[in-house]
Inverse folding.
């Protein structure tokens, strides 16, 4: 069993108008030192062991085809193996 | 000519498309559910606007994996006409049938208003009934219509005359190159954010969208008589 965390974020070249709106609000709160905010997506995924497929391959395929739109987004992931509790 | 109007859960411009075809240009149109596994008997496919799958994850991202979409891809590969408006355009880019992506509007607003569209390319099966550089009155209604592609893709789109419609007066959503609608290289898949199906009655503000569907019908008729 694996616990996988996937982070999807906009590429640096992509404008994030939502993040800018949040930054504006943060400045109105008085925190001028906050220079930039970018909004992304975070996924928590549980994956069982599969006899033929590596978990990394599965996660990358799912990210490339569904979780991220690679035209404008990038992703990174962390895989943690957890012991099955019987 | 017989059109399939695909219905995804959350589509809401399907009725407008059916009306545009049946009552606007007097051709046949049927609803086809997202679960369908065949498009046999249809000559054109129309992907409607709306909020398929609640726009979850990204607009069009989930619809892309509907049963019917593998058939739509095959239909497109066969060179048959596929048109997506608004959410339909978003589905086409997510499915990789058209290049680029659609981002949140630059000003973050959902924009619902009438826009002026310039016809950049009349040498397509969707726009042959228009004049080059003609300005059309067509409504838009979207929150994520900000077309994005990288510089290489944009250069490619320009070089191949794939930019079919641009916003004529103001750019409402921040799209690169004022892009409102594009076509694939093969010339049989077109996607646009504006709604030509909502502009088929003068009584309702504009009938400039009618010639879009008439172009499809006439070019289809031409091809079938040539064969």
């Amino acid at each position: 069993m694996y616990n996988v965390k996937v982070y999807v974020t906009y590429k640096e070249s992509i404008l994030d108008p939502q993040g800018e709106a949040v930054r504006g609000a943060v400045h109105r709160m008085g925190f001028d030192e906050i220079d930039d905010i970018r909004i992304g997506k975070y996924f928590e995924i549980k994956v069982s062991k599969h006899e033929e497929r590596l978990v990394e391959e599965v996660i990358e395929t799912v990210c490339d085809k569904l979780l991220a739109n690679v035209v404008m987004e990038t992703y990174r992931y962390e895989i943690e193996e957890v012991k099955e509790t019987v | 000519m017989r059109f399939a109007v695909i219905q995804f859960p959350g589509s809401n411009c399907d009725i407008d498309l059916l009306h545009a075809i049946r009552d606007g240009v007097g051709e046949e149109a049927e609803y086809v559910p997202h679960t369908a596994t065949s498009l046999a008997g249809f000559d054109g496919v129309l992907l409607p606007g709306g909020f398929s799958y609640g726009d979850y994850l990204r607009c069009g991202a989930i619809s892309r994996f509907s049963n019917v979409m593998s058939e739509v891809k095959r239909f497109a590969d066969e060179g048959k006409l596929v048109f997506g408006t608004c959410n339909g355009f978003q589905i086409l880019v997510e499915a990789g049938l058209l290049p680029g992506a659609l981002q949140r509007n630059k000003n973050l607003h959902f924009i619902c208003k009438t826009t002026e569209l310039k016809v950049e390319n009349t040498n397509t099966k969707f726009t042959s009934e228009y004049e080059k550089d003609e300005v059309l009155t067509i409504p838009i209604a979207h929150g994520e219509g900000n077309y994005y592609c990288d510089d290489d893709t944009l250069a490619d789109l320009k070089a191949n005359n794939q930019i079919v419609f641009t916003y004529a007066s103001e750019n409402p959503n921040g799209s690169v190159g004022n892009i409102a609608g594009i076509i694939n290289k093969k010339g049989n898949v077109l996607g646009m954010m504006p709604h030509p199906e909502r502009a088929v009655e003068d009584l309702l503000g504009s009938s400039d969208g009618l010639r879009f569907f008439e172009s499809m019908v006439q070019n289809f008729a031409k091809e079938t008589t040539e064969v």
Notes: The mean pLDDT of chain B is 96. The interface with chain A takes residues 57-58, 61, 65, 93-94, 99-101, 103-108, 148-150, 174 of chain B (CB under 8 Å). The first strand of chain B starts at residue 2 and ends at 7. Chain B has five helices and eleven strands.
